[in-house]
Amino acid sequence: MGKPLDPPPGSNTLTVRDNRTGKSYQIPxxxxxxxxxDFKAIKASRVAGEREENETEKGLRLADRGFLNTAVxxxxxxxxxxxxxxxxxxxxxxxxxxxHSNHLETAYLLIYGSLPxxxxxxxxxxxxxxxxxxxxxxxxxxxxxxxxxxxxxxLTSALAYLGSYYSEANPSLQGQNLFTKxxxxxxxxxxxxxxxxxxxxxxxxxxAYRVRQGREFVTPPxxxxxxxxxxxxxxxxxxxxxxxxxxxxxxxxxxFLLHADHEMNASSTSVLQVGSSLVDPFSAVAAGxxxxxxxxxxxxxxxxxxxxxxxxxxxxxxxxxxAVKKREKVLSGFGHRVYxxxxxxxxxxxxxxxxxFKITGKDELLETAMALHDAAMKDDYFISRKLAPNVDxxxxxxxxxxxxxxxxxxxxxxxxxVVGWLAHWRQMMLQAGGVKIWRPRQIYVxxxxxxYVGLEDRIAVEGLKKTPSAIEHSGISKRTRLASFxxxxxxxx
Length: 493
Ligand code: CMC
Fold this sequence. Notes:
By secondary structure, this protein is mainly α. It is built from 21 helices and 5 strands.
């Protein structure tokens, strides 16, 4: 870096010329990417009047609000070609996995890199199902939530709470290199937390559901599939020989598989950001769950149904789309940071919806959803911005048809995504060169250096800058606020 020589054509470097200094720099290109730290060497002297806070002489920064074109790590897990609508887990097309695999087998693939052999699969499935049981004390934890608590608030808290049971898996207690050594004991400890988190995710989610229904909790059954056990824990009301409907169990399994990973999405990034401080995996996964809750991410499936209910009927679609174009309304379930065509998962979800509707009957919102989809796909506003349905557009309709409450939909996204979060977390813990804490930089645009002014002198110096409405948010009671305001004003007048 930094050699001002003309490289031969075809060399894998980028030549950058800094017109402030006239210097040229050659930056290596590796895997079609350049290293942001190479730009730190590009320095200039501050010009007269330039803010010292720009730190011009400390090297160039790369600005990327929202990580639009920043690769935060090298990954072998999931590949997306957003222009072609391609999604592959460890090289396998999502369509093939959805057709031939199941959620737990795919989970193994995502986490360990290859499809399991029959004996590996059996051990994996047994370990996960065996680790689905929760300590009896956890009941009190769930009962401490209000009856109307959002289930994502419960699930996020429950994941962090779960970690409190496993001090042996906590680097803060056992030593910070607990998971980064890559030796046999470290891998075994890591595997155990993976079994626990995947195994108990359905149990925690079912408990979050039942506590709001005022029902007793159900011990995870034996002999059922992952989604079969989940549905059983949610719906069993004491009937003898109760088994979930196999079509719905299979449909949920396909949806779980489709949601298991999606490369560097917001919640996986949160898991890695939090995990990069070497905190325990339960805390890191809880952070991912919190991130997924937002309506721009996993909360979109819930938002789609609220949107469809507000539209009401197909005739109202044109007016709704006009409001979206004026930015008065949001079209949830459309658009994606990476896909610039239809999300490949949305086709599989749409097909799965038809299977489910054969059992449950069609959802009354389906016609409105189809009218909205068709109108948006023909509209220039959406075509020119390459906005198409994402996975959340149809999934909510299936969940609704299956009888899940609207606010539970993000939980049905978070539970399978635990797999992806763990795959990324494991990969980062074991990456060559160890873990680097994720500590980005900022472009400081705040106040330049200024000197502290004592409280008494502040009004005289700055005037009555604080308006009563600004103080309104400060948490002091109105009576106190007026009294002190009057007092100060009087004293200064
Ligand atoms: N409805 C209307 N306009 C939209 C939409 C939408 N759903 N999404 C993007 N746009 C517009 C946006 O206003 C912008 O227009 P302009 O260039 O005129 O300012 C343009 O399209 C580019 O969008 P962006 O906001 O820069 O795109 P982004 O990559 O920052 O955001 C997104 C991606 C998914 C947050 C966004 O498309 C969105 O808010 N969609 C609705 C929420 C949603 O469905 N989220 C689920 C995502 S998929 C499941 C998951 O992985 O979580």
